[in-house]
Amino acid sequence: MTEHTTTSDHHTVRAFDSDLQEVAGKVVAMGGLAEKQITDAVRALVDRDTGLAEHVIATDPTLDAMQQELQQMAERTVALRQPVAVDLREVVAARVLCDHIERIGDYASHIGKRTIALGADQCPQALVRGVAHMADQVLSSLKQVLGAYASRNVQAALAVWKGDEEVDAQCASLYRGLLSSMMEDSRNITACMHLMFCAKEIERIGDHVANIAQMVHYMIEGRAIAGLRPKGDTTNFASEHS
Fold first, then answer.
1. For residue 237, is pLDDT > 70?
2. What range does the domain containing 174 cover?
3. What phi and psi, each to the nearest 5 degrees, are found at residue 128?
């Protein structure tokens, strides 16, 4: 009898581990799709490729569907397995992370819509490159934090969390450049406003990446990161939309 119970418990543990691995795999898959959305959205903006921008927008429902599926998986795992301690934190973290990743996809879609709205309007190329550089920084942080989640690397997650201030500083600097361009030549106003909103979307993506890092830290350590999140330039545009 004891042997049978032990074998049964062993199968239950293996099944639960399989559930956790499947949930984590879905989070990583969502993150990979969000990475591609950001990459494609920024490439569409730089190249003024409306076809690629439309593709980014059309991909967004796929990420939404993945979010809903992951939410259901997490809820089913809690109901069936009743996890505690670190196992519960892993399920909760996956549930929270999928929400942040879904929002990241929304912001990438918004950039696609701005690219289409820009049409053939001329943009100061230095400022377009500034938006692209800012996006590269955020994309690198997203990849790093997803890697930290997959490998349970708390130090990597903490580094991403601390690095958010650099994105805020870049956003504020870009904002000042866009304002200067609009004041120098009124013909730049429409294009610069679109770029300003694109920068805002990227800054918000950076906030979600930092929140993911914070949740990964909690998942591993069982406690929140001490102190407030570092912020860069907290004036004007950066603080207004954080």
1. no
2. 2-240
3. -60, -45
